[in-house]
């Protein structure tokens, strides 16, 4: 297999990823390129003299696979591609810098954060150059989000999606936000008898009443075994449970200002 065989296929792959295409042709290109890239001489551990262009092409292939996995929302493919790519980033730092390197590093950090891989997150963070930690917007976004989660500032964390510098982040941000909502829901149903519709929308960082109804239906289903149910009565969201006589009623103003602080630590949830 030769680099010349890979180059036109890699260029086509690049074009399709840039256009956010998930056409069947993308899968065909990945299969074809795997058969070529993996057999390039420079990817053989026994090859002592590496060809720079072969390494660059191999690195780019795995970067494009990562971007495709995000576009297709395939976490397993993302994990596989990031493991391959890490070898090129770590073993061949002398290669010309990739245009998407910091974007992909940030994606990996956010992936680790969203899947509660805290030890791996901090280990990966230690490998990021100090200059990129302080100056790259993608990496800074993730590290700032992690700080907000670590101190329990969930209201600020929930607002971070509106400030996201990269659409590719959404798949992992959504996972983090669902975890925050889940924890907030568990706290709210145990602490309050009811909320106004507007207060509930604000508390769970939803957009409208329809989203609240959908979210409430999901929570009722999850809470059946614990004896909780969420129902709407007189324009209020009511939390019903077996021990309702033991519940304390908090006023709405207190709820909005402090309820998020009652959520458990995000790292306890997988």
TrEMBL record:
Keywords from the named record: Proteasome
Origin superkingdom: Eukaryota
One GO BP annotation of this record: proteasome-mediated ubiquitin-dependent protein catabolic process
Keyword Cell inner membrane attached: no
PROSITE patterns membership: PCI
InterPro entries: 26S_Psome_Rpn12 (IPR006746), CSN8_PSD8_EIF3K (IPR033464), PCI_dom (IPR000717)
Gene Ontology, cellular component aspect: cytosol; nucleus; proteasome regulatory particle, lid subcomplex
Pfam families tied to this protein: CSN8_PSD8_EIF3K
All residue ranges annotated as the PCI domain in the record: 76-244
Classification via PANTHER family: 26S PROTEASOME NON-ATPASE REGULATORY SUBUNIT 8 (PTHR12387:SF0)
Family affiliation: Belongs to the proteasome subunit S14 family.
Protein name: 26S proteasome non-ATPase regulatory subunit 8
The species this protein was found in: Tetrahymena thermophila (strain SB210)
């Amino acid at each position: 297999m030769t680099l010349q065989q890979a180059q036109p296929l890699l260029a086509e792959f690049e074009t399709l990823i840039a256009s956010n295409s998930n056409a069947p042709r993308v899968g065909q290109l990945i299969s074809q390129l795997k058969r070529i890239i993996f057999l390039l001489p420079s990817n053989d551990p026994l090859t002592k003299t590496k060809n720079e262009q072969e390494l660059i092409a191999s690195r780019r292939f795995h970067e494009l696979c990562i971007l495709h996995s995000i576009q297709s929302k395939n976490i397993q493919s993302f994990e596989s591609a990031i493991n391959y790519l890490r070898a090129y980033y770590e073993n061949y730092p002398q290669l010309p810098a990739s245009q998407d390197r910091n974007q992909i590093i940030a994606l990996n950090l956010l992936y680790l954060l969203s899947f509660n891989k805290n030890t791996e997150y901090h280990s990966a963070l230690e490998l990021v150059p100090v200059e990129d930690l302080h100056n790259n917007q993608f990496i800074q976004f993730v590290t700032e989000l992690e700080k907000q989660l670590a101190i329990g500032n969930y209201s600020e964390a929930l607002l971070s999606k509106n400030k996201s510098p990269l659409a590719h982040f959404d798949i992992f941000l959504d996972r983090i936000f669902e975890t925050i909502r889940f924890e907030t829901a568990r706290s709210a149903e145990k602490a309050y008898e009811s909320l106004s519709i507007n207060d509930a929308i604000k508390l769970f960082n939803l957009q409208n009443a329809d989203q609240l109804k959908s979210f409430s239906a999901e929570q009722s289903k999850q809470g059946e075994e614990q004896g909780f149910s969420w129902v709407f009565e007189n324009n209020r969201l009511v939390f019903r449970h077996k021990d309702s006589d033991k519940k304390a009623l908090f006023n709405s103003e207190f709820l909005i200002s402090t309820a998020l602080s009652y959520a458990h630590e995000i790292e306890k949830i997988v």
